[in-house]
Amino acid sequence: MIIDIIIYLLGILTMIIIIQAILSWLVAFNVINTYNDFVRQFLYALDRITEPLYKPVRKILPDFGALDLSPLVVLILIQIIERVLRGVQSGSPLI
């Protein structure tokens, strides 16, 4: 039961990271107007949610300039955690 809740929350976190990454691309290519108050607040909220996850990964990864791979690394880590939890839940080996 608790593992199901954790897996569900990890799924929500995955969607938040994907939405934040796509929106950051749209802002970088000037598709989204950041002068709009709602858009700016929404982007700020997403940044506040995801930044604590990205910060430790950014300390480890080398600097790639404008290319930020930390969302990809965090998504891979989330997938690994989900697999481990599903293995624990089913009682089978972890992989």
TrEMBL record:
Pfam families: CCB3_YggT. The keyword Transmembrane helix applies. InterPro entries: CCB3/YggT (IPR003425). The chain crosses the membrane at residues 7-32. GO terms for cellular component: membrane. Keywords: Membrane, Transmembrane, Transmembrane helix. This is YggT family protein.
